[in-house]
Structures are given as structure tokens and as C-alpha cells.
Fold this sequence. Notes:
Blueprint: E1 4-9, H1 15-25, E2 31-38, H2 44-51, E3 56-58, H3 67-80, E4 85-88, H4 97-101, E5 107-111, H5 123-129, E6 134-141, E7 151-158, H6 165-188, E8 192-195, E9 198-201, E10 204-205, E11 210-211
Parallel strand pairs: 1-2, 1-4, 2-3, 4-5, 7-11
Antiparallel strand pairs: 5-6, 6-7, 8-9, 9-10
Binding site for N(1)-(5-phospho-beta-D-ribosyl)glycinamide: 14-16
Family: Belongs to the GART family.
Domain Formyl transferase N-terminal: 6-184
Amino acid sequence: MAAFGIAVLASGAGTNLQALIDAIAGDALPARIVAVFSDKPNCAALQRARDAGIPAVARSPKDFASREAFDAAFFADVDAAGADLIVCAGYMRLIAAAEVDARPGRMINLHPSLLPAFKGLHTHRQALDAGAREHGASVHAVTADLDGGPVIAQARVPVLVGDDEAALAARVRAIEHPLLVETVRLLAEDRLRLRDGGIFLNGAPLTAPLQLGANRRLA
């Protein structure tokens, strides 16, 4: 049986991509990355993919007349890779609803906040401005609503006195990696399924997001 195939979408440094690469190499994740796709031809994530021997594909939105035209070409490339799951790991573009709707239950996104709080950009600044005592990251199913799909799993960190955006971002980034790896692992093992607009764990509906524990496992 072929290994569970992942297509990773990224726009920046690719640290979460690297976490997946390392987990697969260390036999902690029973999957393979079929390709990495980006809207930024020069981003570091693509070089991480090449260094790991993974196909790296880029398209520039500037080459297309509209967001919809870009997304149609971009996701045609993604589909051609034959992935079981599409993982948005630092992919910074809004995806056209038609492309999301065409792939129900096959796309997840890592977002740096405890959704539904602090959607969109600058989440660490939003958390500090709001006086939040707790912050973190969420993995959610992708829908046409910005950061609005059902939340699958979360990891939490405290907001400390004296935190600035950089300090808080670093603390969140450290838990993003195991959160993403563990979520993908459950999907790859077919223990976690996204279907009918809901999330199912071991065949039962998930009534609240899974939480990452100190042992770096989801429960």
C-alpha cells in the first residue's frame, strides 16, 4: 500500500514544512510529501523541499489576470501530484471558494491563534492588544471562510508579562511543529477523518478540538 501522500502549500520560511520532513525521516509520521507548492518562487520553503529531494513547484500570481485564474492553475498542479491531503503550512493567500469546495475534507490549515479568536494576520499583536492570558495555534479544516473551518486540534502557550510580538511568536512557533505533525499523523493513520462538514476521531464525532499535551500528543 502506498504511503499517505501530502501536498504542502507554503509562502515563507517553511519551518513547519521542515517539521513534517524531519518527522517523516525519523519514522514518526507514516506519510510522504509528494510535492511542495508556493506562490512565492523564491521562498525558503521551496529550497527546503529541494534539499530533501521533494518536488518544488511555484507559480506567481502576477502571471495571472485574477485570483481565480491563479488558483485554478495552482490547484491543477496540486491535484496532479496525487496527494491524499493538502496541508497549508504558512500559505499566505486566500483560496478561491471554488477550489476549496472542489476538495472537501482534503485541506487543512495551521493558524497561529486559538481559533475562533484572532483570525487573519498579525495574530500575536492581536493577542497582546486584547490582553489575552493564553495564546497558541490551531489546525482547522479549510473552508471558504477565512480561518473559519472546523477546528481539529490546538496547542496552547501562556502570554507572559513583558511579552512582545517576537517573544510570543517564538513561543507559539515551538508548539506549532508538534501540533501539525500530530494532526497529520492521525489523518495518515486514518484515525482522524474530515467528512460531511465534521471531524471524526476513531469513528466518533469530535465535540471539541483535540489538545496537545506536554507529551506532545493529542488528546
